[in-house]
Design brief:
Elements lengths: L14 E3 L6 E3 L1 E4 L10 H13 L4 E3 L10 H14 L7 E6 L14 H15 L4 E6 L8 H13 L3 E7 L3 H14 L3 E5 L13 H8 L2 E5 L35 H16 L4 H9 L6 E4 L4 H8 L9 H11 L1
Parallel strand pairs: 3-4, 3-10, 4-5, 5-6, 6-7, 7-8, 8-9, 9-10
Antiparallel strand pairs: 1-2
This protein binds NADP nicotinamide-adenine-dinucleotide phosphate (NAP).
């Protein structure tokens, strides 16, 4: 049966302005890094994407290399678009990236014009789109002149293949340099995508200030520390968890007793707030200047639970103090 989006999809989601740009993002966005590859169940991914959209998640984040195999997440999302979501294209913000290894040889990685141009063309082909809404350089390339990578992003906008551009994994200093170049070129640089969660807070040491000064916003990836900042690992390693998946980035050895001790205490605090720990972890990354929390999911129910986080976004000073003490 043809998918019809829920009429109420815009009733509860919160939309937040990306810096000083014209673009609004949902407070929660869905990333397709895991669970959307060749090895995953297509019906499950289609259900996750359509449920997300029904809940007002208008932003879906991809990259050339998401899979496995690399490229397959874009291919699968392209199929979902074609089968279900294309009538809603103008309601969607679809992003992709290039910067990590994608194909063999000297032109399939990093930040050269040759790589970035070819990669975006390949992404558009897999997605079945004429343009992406946001195109990112996925990581800084120390061996390519910054101007070359950034002028290529600018070119993509001029060619109409991307509406806005972003940077990911650039540190505060690299971002500040990039902002100067973008200003000169008048490139619509509107977003930075950094790793950010209660266990990894590097963005607080300068990056958010640089972005604020530049009038750009941010979207925090891995807000749940790949699932560790939920209640899921408190009683061991569940069979259907990312840590138990050999193709996934999270390894059992990363879930240390020291981390679990903190997770237990955070879980208690979340319960006192009337939230699950997943929900508290999401609203925590949104408490100061971050525009959107970029979650992943393996099941529809996780998306439903996570979106409910927005029912209770405020923290008392006492709660924030307790979180700081737990994380020490
Ligand atoms: N720019 C970059 O360099 C970069 C790097 C990494 C990621 N990203 C982006 O960030 C997105 C999110 O990354 P991520 O998937 O690692 O984020 P995450 O939100 O920290 O972790 C998602 C995982 O947590 C678990 N989970 C989610 N909701 C849950 C809930 N309510 N209760 C229990 N477990 C829950 C699921 O794992 P299970 O499989 O165990 O159920 C899910 O796959 C990616 O898809 C990608 O778009 C960007």
């Amino acid at each position: 049966m043809t998918y019809l989006a829920d009429d109420k999809r815009y009733d509860t989601m919160k939309y937040r302005r990306l810096g000083k740009s014209g673009l609004l993002l949902p407070a929660i966005s869905l990333g397709l890094w895991h669970n959307f590859g060749d090895v995953d169940n297509y019906i499950n991914m289609k259900n996750m994407v359509t449920k997300a959209f029904d809940l007002g998640i208008t932003h879906f984040d991809l990259a050339n290399n998401y899979g496995p195999n690399p490229g397959s997440a874009e291919k699968n999302f392209g199929r979902i678009l074609k089968e279900e979501l294309m009538p809603y294209r103008d309601e969607l913000i679809i992003s992709s990236k290039a910067g990590y290894t994608m194909w063999p040889g000297p032109y399939g990685d990093h930040g050269s014009k040759k790589y970035l141009v070819s990669s975006l063309d390949q992404s558009l082909n897999r997605l079945g789109l004429d343009y992406v809404d946001i195109f990112y350089h996925h990581r800084p390339d120390p061996d390519t002149n910054l101007e070359e990578s950034l002028m290529t992003l600018d070119l993509m906008v001029r060619q109409g293949k991307a509406l806005y551009v972003g940077l990911s994994n650039y540190n505060a200093e690299q971002t500040a340099k990039a902002v100067e170049i973008f200003k000169e070129l008048r490139t619509p640089f509107v977003i930075h995508q950094p790793r950010y969660n209660m266990f990894d807070r590097w963005v607080e040491d300068g990056l958010l200030d640089v972005l604020e000064d530049a009038g750009a916003g941010s979207i925090a990836f891995v807000p749940l520390a790949q699932g560790v900042l939920t209640n899921k690992y408190l009683k061991g390693i569940p069979e259907d968890s990312r840590a138990n998946n050999p193709t996934a980035a999270l390894k059992v050895k990363d879930i240390t007793e020291e981390k679990l001790e903190k997770v237990r205490k955070l879980n208690e605090l979340a319960a006192e707030r009337g939230q699950s720990l997943a929900q508290m972890s999401i609203v925590w990354v949104l408490r100061d200047r971050v525009t959107s929390a970029l979650i992943g999911a393996s099941k529809v129910e996780q998306i439903v639970e996570n979106v409910k986080a927005l029912d209770h976004m405020e923290f008392t000073a006492e709660e924030l103090k307790r979180i700081e003490e737990i994380l020490k």
